[in-house]
Structures
1.
Amino acid sequence: MSKQPNPADNSQMAGSDTLDRSNSNAKLEQLERFREDATGEALTANTGTRIADNQNSLRGGERGPTLMEDFIMREKITHFDHERIPERVVHARGAGAHGYFEVTDPISDLSCAAFLGEAGKRTPVFVRFSTVQGPRGSADTVRDVRGFAVKFYTEEGNFDLVGNNMPVFFIQDAIKFPDFVHAVKPEPHNEIPTGASAHDTFWDFVSLTPESAHMVLWTMSDRAIPIAYRSMQGFGVHSFRLVNGEGQSKLVKFHWRPKAGVCSLVWDEAQKLAGKDPDFHRRGLWEDIERGLYPEWELGLQVMDEEDALSFGFDLLDPTKLVPEELVPVRVVGRMVLNRNPDNFFAETEQAAFHIGHVVPGIDFSNDPLLQGRLFSYTDTQLLRLGGPNFNEIPINRPLCPFHNNQRDAPHRQQINRGRASYEPNSIDGNWPRETPPAPSGGGYSSYPEPLQGHKVRVRSASFGDHFSQATLFWRSMSETEQQHIVDAYSFELSKVERLYIRERQVKDILAHIDPLLALRVAENLGIDLDSTSTPKMDDKAEVSPALSQMNLLPGDILGRRVAILLTPGCKADEVGSLKKMLEAAGAVAKLLAPSAAALKDSDGQPMQPDGSFASEPSITVDAVFVPGGEYVLKTLQDDGVAKHYLLEAYKHLKPLALSGDAAQLAALLGLEEDDGMLCGDSFDPLYMRFETALKQHRIWAREMRAKSIPA
Ligand code: HDE
C-alpha cells in the first residue's frame, strides 16, 4: 500500500473553526484520495467503456425484445440488484459526520497514546449517532438509547470509542445481549412495534431482569428523547484502562460533554416528529454543519485506581453502574468538533465499521464482562454486514496511517501486495513487515500485564449484586419535572403492555425497589393495587448527584436554536429585519414562515420571501416562535386554523413565544397565559431581550400543568 501523509500532522487536518472550510477540505481530500467527483467526466461502464445511450436498452427492432447482448444494461441492473447490505442488527438507524479531536490538556501522565499527548494536537474523527431498536428507515425521535460512536484516525492506528448517550447498560454480561435485543426488537410474530420499547416482550424481559432497573430508568427519562445529537452527552459506559509510558495503569470512564447543553424533546413532540419529520435528528446535524454551526463536545475522563475498583460501594467492572461525578470529578482533556458532512451516506455512514477492539498503545481494556463480549461481536458482525474480512480497506474504515501485514486475499481485496513472502519469519523478503517493540520506545501495542488468577467458572461476582441503589440515586437526583416525565413514560409504556401480570411485576418487583413513591405514582396510573406493606422502606437521606439532572446542564446560550418568525401580510419590516439579525448574531437560526410558501408584502410594501409555510415547518421542528406586529397580523392569524394550532402547540410544548404589537391580542384569543416565556410587548427591544432569556432556559417548565389543558 502506498504511504499516506501522517494524519497527526496538524497542518493536514480539518482546519480550525475559523479557517476557510473549502481550503481545509481540499487538504483532507489529498489524504482521502478515494473520494470521486464525476463533474466534467464521461459516463462509462465499470470497465471504463464510454456509454453513448443511457436511455434505451438494446432491442431487436424498435418494438422488439431486449437482447441478452446488452452488457451495459445488464451490468447496471446487476449492480442495482445488489445495492443493499444487511443493516446493523442493532443501531441500524443512524447518521454520521466528520470532524476533528483536539487535545486541550495532554495526558501523557496517564496514557502513552500519541494522539492524547500534546496540547493543540488534532486528529480526524468520524462519528456515527444512532438509535438502537428501529430498522434503517425508522424515525429518529423514538424513545430509545442513542449510539455515540467515534472513530479517531490517529497516527498510531484507529481508536474507536463506541459509546452511548447514557452512562450505564441494561445487562451485566454479554451472554445476555441476544436475549435483551430479541426482547426489545419488534415482536417476532407481527414485527410490531417499530422503534419502540412499549410492548410486552421488552417489559417481560426487563421485569424479570432486575439488573436492567437502572438503565430502564434512564430510558424512561428525557435522556431517551434528545432534541438533537448535538445536545447529547456521550459515555464509553465501561471502565477502560489507560497505560502510561512507565507501564502504569488506571481505570477510566470516558465522557463526552456537549457544548450545546443537554436538552430533550417533550414526549408529545417526539411522537409527532416521528410522523412529520422522521429525519429530524439527521436533518438537524446535517443542516447545522452546512450552516457552519458546528456541534462540539468536550472529552472528559474519570480516572480511578484499580485498587479502588470495589471501594465505591459498587464494582467498577459492572456496566450497570456509573461513577458519580461528585465522587470522581471529570477531567476535561480535549474537544471534538464536527465540521464536515459525508459526501455519500452509504459509502461513509453505512459502511463505517466500529469496533471496541480498535485501540492504540496506551488504551486497554478492563474485565467488564460486557466489554469482553463486545470484543468478539463487532468484527463478527462486520464479516456478515460488509461481506468478508477486508472491511478495514473500505475508505471510511482504513487507517490514515500506513498498515502492513501478511493477511491476504478474501472477497473484495483492494491492496495489491507486492513481494514473495506472506508469512513471518521469512528470509525471502528480508522478514518485512516486522514487529515493533512495545510502546513507548517502539510504539508496538502490548497488552497491560494484568495478573490473573482463579478457577474457570460461570458465576456473576457478588459485587455485581446491588441492582437498585444507583437507580434510586438517579431517581432522587431528578428535578420534580424530570420525575414527572419518568412517571409519565413508565405509565405510557406499561399501558401498552397487554399482559397485566407483566405491568404488575414491573411495578412491584422493580419500581418499588427503586422508590416507593415512583411505584405508587405509576401504579395509580395503571390501576394497580400497591399494598404499602409490600413496598420496601427507603432511606430518606439517600444521596443525590446533581450532575445527573439535565436541568443543571443547560448551555447558557442560544447557538443552533431554531426560531420560527411568523410572517403575515403587512408585517413590520424593521422588526423582522432586527429579529433575524439579532438571532443570527447569537448563532440561532431564524426561519421565516408564512401562511403559504408564496412571498408576501411587508409594511414597506416590499416582497418578503418565506423559508417555508406554517404547515411545511410545523412548530415541533422549532425551539421558539416570534410573531412580529403588523397591520393584518390579527386578522390573518385568527382566521387561520394552521396558524392557531402552531401557536397553541408551541405553547403546549412549553416553548418561548413572543407576540409583538397587535399580535399580542392573539394571547387572549387563544387562552395563552403570559409567563416567563409567553411574552407580549409593544416595544421590540425589551421584548426580544426577554425572548432570548427565555430561549436560554430552553422550556418554560412552570407552564407544564397549565399546558396540559391545551388540546393541540
Ligand atoms: Fe453494541 N453492537 N453491543 N453496544 N453498539 C453493535 O456492531 C454488542 C453495547 C454500540 O454506529 C453491533 O457494527 C454486544 C454497549 C453502538 O456503527 C454489534 C453488546 C454499547 C453501536 C454490537 C453490545 C454499545 C453498536 C451491531 C453486549 C455502549 C453502533 C452493528 C456485550 C457502550 C456503531 C455493529 C455504529 C453496534 C454488539 C452492547 C454501543 C452487533 C454483543 C454496552 C454505538 O456488534
2.
Amino acid sequence: MDIRLGNGFDVHGFAEGDHVTLCGVDIPHTHRLTGHSDADVAMHAITDAIFGALAEGDIGQWFPPSDPQWKGAASEIFLAKAVARVAETGFLLSNVDCTIICEMPKIGPHAAAMRQALALILGIDVDRISVKATTSERLGFTGRGEGIAAIATAALIRP
Ligand code: MG
C-alpha cells in the first residue's frame, strides 16, 4: 500500500468587514480576510496539504494570484481540483486535519458546520475530517488580531 502525507500552511490578513469565510462557512466577525480569492485560509491550507501529498506543487501554481479569473473565486474550486487530482492519480483521501490559529472569531461553535461543508467537497465521511482551533496566546500577528493562520495535514492511500 502506498501511503502519502502532505502539509499545508496559509495566512490571510484582516481588513474592515462583517464576516470571514472559513472551510466554506461564513462566520460573522468585525473584519474580513483579504486575498485575491475569497481568502478562505483554512481551505487553502487543506488544498495545499493535498497537493503536497501528491507532490504536485501548491495552490499558487495551480491557481496563480496574477490570473484575474481567480479574483474573488470561491476556494472550493481550488479544493475540488486537488480532490480531483487524488482520484486521477489512483489515490483515496484517507483523512484531513486542519488547525485554525486566531484569537477571534471563536471557531468551536462553527467546527461542526465546517466539517460538514468540507465533507461535501472532499467526498469522505465527516469522521475523517478534523477542524480544530487554537490561539497563539496573544503573541505574534495572530495574537494581535492582524489575521488568521491555518495548518493542515492530509493523508492519501493507494491500495
Ligand atoms: Mg491563501
3.
Amino acid sequence: MAKKAINVGIIGFGTVGTGTARILIENADIIQRRLGAPVVLKKISDLDVKRDRGIALGNVQLTTSAQEILTDPDIDVVIELIGGYKPAKEFILEAFRNKKHVVTANKALLAVHGEELYAAAEKAGVTLGYEASVAGGIPILAAVRSGLAANNIESIYGIVNGTCNYILTLMTNAGRKFDEVLKEAQAMGYAEADPTFDIEGIDSAHKLAVLTMLAYGTPVKFDDIYTEGISKITPLDIDFAKDLGYKIKLLAITKKVNGEIEARVHPTMLPETYPIATVDGVFNALAVVGDAVGSTMFYGRGAGDMPTGSAVVSDVISIGRDILAGSVGRSPITAFRDRKVLKIRKMDDITSCYYLRFSALDKPGVLSRITGVLGKNNISISSMLQKGRKVDEAVPIVMMTHEAVERDVRKALEEINKLDCVSGATVVIRVEDGSK
Ligand code: NDP
Ligand code: HSE
C-alpha cells in the first residue's frame, strides 16, 4: 500500500529542535503540497519536557525517553538535535539498526565519526541527511552535492561560524568587547554548548571537514585540518586592518592544489571590498569555485533556530520524496559513489600573504634587522605601518608581505621573536590579497 504520511520524531528540543518543530507544524501545508504527503511530527524527546517552548504542539507527544522515538515502528525519520558525541552517535546507530532514516545538524559528530555513520546508514539501506550541519540555513551542501555536481571544485572559501562573525562584526563596527559580545551570541542561541568550539575555530573546522568530504569525495581526518580561532584577535589588529583597507574574518578554506587538498581555518584579512568581507553579524557566506561554473556565492543566516530548522526540514522533505518514490539511496550519502583518499597538504607548504605585527623598540637599525631576517627567508614586504613614537619603549610595527611560503614565515618569526629589540611574539594573520 502506498505510504500516506512521513512520520518523524525529534530528539533534542533546544534551539534547533524548537525551530524544526515550529516549521514542521506551522508550514505543514506548504510541506505537504511540495511532498504530496503530510510530514507528521509524532514525538519530541528532551530531558526537560516541562519547559514552555512557545509552540502550540497539538497532538505531538513529549517524552523524556529517546528510546520511545528510536523504537517507535511508525517513525520513519529520526531527527537528532541533542548535539555532542555521546549519546548522539549511539542514538543514530540505533535508529539505523531500526531501519529509520536520520537527519542531524551535528557537525562535531560528523567530522569525527562521519565515516562510521555513513557506512552504517548505507549498510542499513537508510539515509543520513545533514544539510543543517554546515552554514545554518544556507543550502550549501545541496549546492555542492547536486547543483554543482558537474564541476571539479577548485576551492571553497567561507565564513561558516555565525558566532565568530557576530563577535568580529561588533568588535569592528561598534568597538565592542570580545567577551561581552560572545555572551550575547550565546543568549541568542548561536553558540555551541561549549563556546570554545566556536571561538577557537573548531566548529568551523568540523564544518570544513564535511564540506571537503562532499566537495572532493575524500574522507577527511579532522585532525589534519589546520585550526586557529579568533580568541587572540585584538582591537589593535582590527584597527590596523581598517587603516590598511581590510577586514578580519574567520575563514574556512578548502582547495585543490597539485592533487592535494588544502583544508584550513584561521582568521583572515580580506580587502574590505571583497563580497565576503561585507558579510556581517550572524550571517555566513561561502564562495565556491568550480571549473565549469566559475565563481558562485552563497549567503544567509548561519545559526539560530529557524534558519537551521529550515535546513533540517529540507532534509526531511528530501528523504520523504525518496521514501514515497521508493528510491532511497539514489543520492549517495557522501555525494560520491567512487571515493578516493586525497592527501591533506601540510600547513607548512601553503602560500599566502601575511600581516605581521611586531612589537619592537623604535630606534635606528631595528627595522633593518627585522627586514633582514625576512629577506633571508624569501619574504618580501609590500607595505609597512607604524603608529606613534615612544623612545625606549616597544611600539607596534606592521608589515604586509607579498606571497610567501608558510614554512619560511614560521622560520623567520622564530628568529625575529628572539631579537633583543623585539618584545613578545609577533602577531600573524594570513591575508587574501586582492592582487592575486
Ligand atoms: P541546545 O543545547 O539548544 O539543544 C539540545 C537539546 O537536547 C537540549 O534541550 C538538551 O537538554 C537536549 N538533550 C540533551 N541530551 C538529550 C537526550 N539524551 N535526550 C533528549 N534530549 C537531550 O542545542 P542546539 O539546538 O543549539 O544544537 C543542537 C545541534 O544542532 C548541535 O549539534 C549543534 O551543533 C547543531 N547546530 C546548532 C545551531 C544553532 O544555531 N544553535 C546551528 C547549526 C547546527 P538540556 O538542555 O537539558 O541538556
Ligand atoms: N555555533 C554555530 C555557529 C552554530 O555559531 O555558527 C551553527 O552551526
